[in-house]
TrEMBL record:
Keyword line: Oxidoreductase
Pfam families the UniProt entry points to: ELFV_dehydrog, ELFV_dehydrog_N
Organism of origin: Haloferula sargassicola
Record-annotated Glutamate/phenylalanine/leucine/valine/L-tryptophan dehydrogenase C-terminal domain positions: 186-417
Family in the record: Belongs to the Glu/Leu/Phe/Val dehydrogenases family.
Name used for this protein in its record: Glutamate dehydrogenase
Record PANTHER family: GLUTAMATE DEHYDROGENASE, GLUTAMATE DEHYDROGENASE 1, MITOCHONDRIAL
Domain of life: Bacteria
Cross-referenced InterPro entries: Aminoacid_DH-like_N_sf, Glu/Leu/Phe/Val/Trp_DH, Glu/Leu/Phe/Val/Trp_DH_C, Glu/Leu/Phe/Val/Trp_DH_dimer, Glu/Leu/Phe/Val_DH_AS, Glu_DH, NAD(P)-bd_dom_sf, NAD_bind_Glu_DH
Transmembrane portions of the chain: none
Length: 420
């Protein structure tokens, strides 16, 4: 199993990052092994009858990296590219993210290898309900709490709540987060990740002495994270010049009209063809001069090939694993890019998911203003801890963030000991 995981490029990348941090922390062999490998790797078959009467079997995965500090927390994605290695890498990163943010969770991640764009609403519902039933022995408010991710949304979470609650015989809203408000979701959850990316990017500009009202930005991705990142940056006065999605990219030197772009995307399904912008190659867009570059979609898009050509002051990682180790080495050598690593930068989503989980357990709701204020307080505290740690030990910010997180987990593992 170890070899299989390490053959996956994303898990190999996560493992390489962990090994570097473990070397810095001088973890002994026992703690290194226990922290690195996931506790559970679960694969289930999901047979589903399609609308045309045919039956197809999908594979669903869930990785629970650690339950040492509490139930695992992490998204469920629907994508034809989902595999166990990718899910394991994302679960590991989520573990460090929860530890860094001082949330009482371990890291989890799940996925089903289907293409939601080709499935009807009924087919998506049947896939979701069957997967939830298969996972019931391994999930619960105190075991594993899922959330939306790529290809899933509030509706997906609603089906999961209903399936699990029907099995339990009573409503269990805390089984997932990212629910609609009518099912005891949390105000502010939808925009939490993107808001956090923009908030931390603004804090980085402040550290660099760049006036936020004079700044420019490029955002890769215009889904939930990318769109809310762009809108929040614009609300700060940042001029968002370039935005891309899976189909292409658009550019306007004077700044994109985001409300009109959103309307265009709703009408056409893509940013491509937006009349108030020029087309630009998505790969070249990443290398345009800007103050903030926010990769907020796919992983491994900042590579050894394009890292030397980046012309941003701040790299705000809204996606998981957008920067490869080779690119990291180049950017660290350059020393002129302020990197806000994914484990910190996109932690807004899981932080507000924690708030939602707490509200569900207490049967009490907070206002959106309370949620966003608490989120910014948590992010500011983590940002300060990371920068102070990086300065104290003369470390790159990514290494500092991951070291703080891994140390948190390893300290708890050492304290609890090894059973039996």
């Amino acid at each position: 199993m170890r070899t299989e995981l390490l053959h996956n490029s994303m898990f190999a990348m996560a493992a390489t990052q962990f090994d570097g941090v473990a070397d810095f922390l001088e973890l002994n062999d026992e703690l290194r092994e226990r922290c690195k490998w996931p506790k559970r790797l679960i694969t289930v078959t999901v047979p589903v009858r399609h609308d045309d009467g045919s039956t197809r079997v999908y594979f669903g995965h869930r990785v629970q990296h650690h339950l040492t500090r509490g139930p695992v927390k992490g998204g469920l994605r629907y994508s034809p590219d989902v595999d166990l290695g990718e899910v394991a890498a994302l679960a590991m990163w989520m573990n460090w993210k929860c530890a860094l943010m001082n949330l009482p969770f371990g890291g989890g991640k799940g996925g089903i290898n289907c293409d939601p764009r080709t499935l009807s609403q009924g087919e998506l519902e049947r896939i979701t309900r069957r997967f939830t039933m298969e996972m019931i022995p391994f999930i619960g408010e105190d075991i594993d709490v899922m959330a939306p991710d790529m290809g899933t949304n509030e509706q997906t979470m609603s089906w999961m709540v209903d399936t699990y609650s029907t099995h339990q015989g009573h409503l269990v809203p805390g089984i997932v987060t990212g629910k609609p408000l009518c099912l005891q979701g949390s105000a502010g959850r939808t925009r939490a990740t993107g808001h956090g990316v923009a908030f931390l990017a603004s804090r980085a500009l402040d550290k660099l002495g760049v006036p936020i009202g004079e700044a420019t930005a490029v955002v890769q991705g215009f889904g939930n994270v990318g769109s809310h990142t762009a809108f929040t940056l614009a609300s700060y006065g940042v001029k968002v010049r370039g935005i891309s999605d899976i189909s292409g990219a658009v550019w306007n030197d004077d700044g994109l009209n985001l409300p009109k772009l959103s309307n265009h995307v709703r009408a056409t399904g893509s940013v491509v063809g937006f009349s108030e912008a020029d087309a630009i190659d998505p790969a070249e867009m990443l290398c345009q001069e800007c103050d903030i570059l926010a990769p907020a979609a796919a992983g491994m898009v900042i590579t050894g090939d394009n890292a030397p050509r980046l012309r941003c002051k701040v790299l705000a990682e809204g996606a998981n694993g957008p920067t490869t180790p080779e690119a990291d080495a180049i950017l660290n050598e350059r020393g002129d890019v302020f990197i806000i690593p994914d484990v910190l930068c996109n932690a807004g989503g899981v932080t507000v998911s924690y708030f939602e989980w707490v509200q569900n357990l207490q049967r009490y709701s907070w206002t959106e203003r309370e949620v966003i204020t608490r989120l910014e307080t948590q992010l500011e505290a983590a940002f300060t801890r990371v920068l102070q740690f990086a300065d104290r030990f003369k470390l790159p910010i990514r290494t500092a963030a991951q070291a703080l997180a891994v140390k948190t987990v390893s300290d708890v593992k050492a304290q609890r000991g090894l059973f039996p």
